[in-house]
Amino acid sequence: MSSQTEKAMDLAANYLSYKARTASEMVIYLRKKNVADADIDYVMEKLREYRYVDDESYLKNYVENNRQLTYYGTKRLLQDLKRRGISDDLLRTLGDLFPSAAEYQCCMTVAVKNLKLLNGKPVLEKRKKLYDKLARMGFSRDMAMDVIRELNLAEEPVELSGEEIAVAEKKVLEKLNQDYQKYERQYLKKGFIGRDLENRIIRSLMGRKYPYEMIKDKLREMKEEKE
Questions:
Q1: How is 5-41 classified by DSSP, letter by letter?
Q2: How big, in percent rounded to 5, are the helix, strand and coil portions of the chain?
Q3: For the segment 5-28, what is each residue's pLDDT rounded down to a tens digit?
Q4: 142: CB partners within 8 A, 6+ apart
Q5: What is the C-alpha separation between 39 and 35, in angstroms, rounded?
Q6: How far is residue 86's CA from residue 54's CA, in Å, rounded to a whole number?
Q7: Model-level pTM?
Q8: How would you class 189 by CB atoms within 10 Å of its CB: exposed for 0-12, middle for 13-18, buried for 19 or more?
Q9: Closest CA to 62 of 44, 38, 37, 79
Q10: Quick one: which of 104, 134, 166, 175 could link to 144 by a disulfide (CB 3.0–4.6 Å)?
């Protein structure tokens, strides 16, 4: 292996250390780094051989992550996956990986979460804002309208007292502290440091449904303590 090929392998490994990549994303990245085509071909062959780059697995994981975290509709998924270079042949399997029942559940999850933010608004305004949000998230008109009709837009969420909110927030923060320490120990033992360590902790905490801003606040707090 030449020094240039070895350098290309190092670039690819570093690019993969942050998150999974599609074959198209990897090729584009290496070209931006001025890697020769012959070296790119060699690197891609090895990455596929070791299954470090596998578009089929990438698609399956992407869809599963969407069902648990991001809750996009099919239109948005297709748009994002095409941009990442997933082939049309693989995209044709999206209906099997993300059937209408699963998409409907994602649509309902988004609607319920956003309805809570519209407390006190008139019903017509709630309906419009919910529809606009669902459309931006990639759900079809018919599915969005079916979900909105299923919700009771006139029903207001139960208001918590200031004391109840404070207690709830304290419990969430305590649990966040525990989970942060757990993931930090876990990834430090695996040898992750710096930005890579931080990214993995963020992803793990997001998987536990903590708000992103709360996670960032926690990271800032830990940096300040270490300084």
A1: HHHHHHHHHHHHHHS---HHHHHHHHHHTT--HHHHH
A2: 75, 0, 25
A3: 889 999 999 999 989 999 999 999
A4: none
A5: 7
A6: 10
A7: 0.63
A8: exposed
A9: 79
A10: 134
